[in-house]
Amino acid sequence: MKIHVIMFVAIVMAASIQAQPPCMPDYPSFYFAIARPVSVPELDTEMPNEVRSGLVALDSISRTYGRTKVDSIFDARPDWDDTVQTFLKYLTILTDYNPLALLRHANTTEYRPYSHYRDIRIGIAGAIEQYSPSKSLDAALTSSDYIALVTVNDTVGLIDTGAKIARTVRVVSSTVDSAVYGRVFPACDQQHMATTSEHERRCLTFNVHFETIYKARSEKNLPRDAITIASKMPLPGRQYLVFLFLYPVCRDADTAYISIRPASWIGSECGVFEVVDSKVVDTTDYFGLGTNPSVNDVISIINSRIRQIVSYQSLTLWK
């Protein structure tokens, strides 16, 4: 009985932290809100030149090419050519610099984009699968808005009665120990997390769905009994290397409401790799370093791949 009372109180406290988004009043889980910009691209004088160039090119593509055309750009590539590597370069630069800026661009009120950065990610995925010299790392980078080493502070279980499939949710509140990819986070108060100190480190709150992990492991023919799936759900006090993406909940005329979720298709751990004694649990050797590599070694190869991608000398910004 005591356990049920504690869980009930935790759920009520979580639910009282924020109201549901007006455009989806039955949505019970974590989200944050961003104002939809009235003019894009949003540029400032402090941006590195390649960030400015990338945002201008993205805006041109969004105004000109539909998703089918974006897909065809990559479908037509015969190999790992300049166009593919240039798209990958600027997508990586923009995401690492500020994933929220990409998100705002995709939600502009100035015009209805024919396509946006998610369409480029989808289009480039096929080229990565066919031609990339680093398939696993490139797939992880193009799927993620954030890669971070985090320590979980708290979790709350919820049932999303409005969801068709992914109804069993664990809301995970964490502190960022090391930001690997994606440098700008929603403010802690935007994520509805109570800060204990003005010097507290960066925060990440994200939703993990039991059914999503089940589906991802089914597609990989990995064990998916209830005990195994439950063991993949993050727990307080533990450390994880997480691969997360920004997920649109809904939007209204002025505001977009966004959730954060693991990229469940990444590895056997479905985008949430537990770190035990500074070793990453990687049961299918996704990173190519064995099934229990040092977390520093995993982060090192990710950073090395990022440097390789962004140092590519493009022949043109895009074709």
Structure, described:
The chain is α+β, with helices and mostly antiparallel strands and 319 residues long. Helices cover 38% and strands 21% of the residues. A hairpin with a 3-residue loop joins strand 5 and strand 6. Helix 6 packs antiparallel against helix 7. It is globular and about 50 Å long. The termini are far apart. The N terminus is likely disordered.
Q: Main beta sheet: strand number and arrangement?
A: 8 strands, antiparallel
Oligomer: single chain
Taken as a percent bin, the fraction of beta residues is 15-25%
Nearest-integer average pLDDT: 88
Shape: globular
Q: Report the count of strand segments.
A: 8
Query: How many H/I helical runs?
Result: 10
Helix proportion: 25-40%
Radius of gyration: 20 Å
| Total separate domains | 2
Summary, kept brief:
It contains 10 helices and 8 strands. By secondary structure, the chain is of the alpha+beta class.
Keyphrases for this structure?
319 residues, alpha+beta, disordered N terminus, globular
Topology:
Layout: H1 2-17, E1 32-35, H2 49-64, H3 67-75, H4 82-97, H5 99-106, H6 117-131, H7 135-143, E2 146-159, E3 168-181, E4 203-209, H8 210-219, H9 226-231, E5 239-251, E6 255-262, E7 272-276, E8 279-280, H10 295-310
Antiparallel strand pairs: 1-6, 2-3, 2-5, 3-4, 5-6, 5-7, 7-8
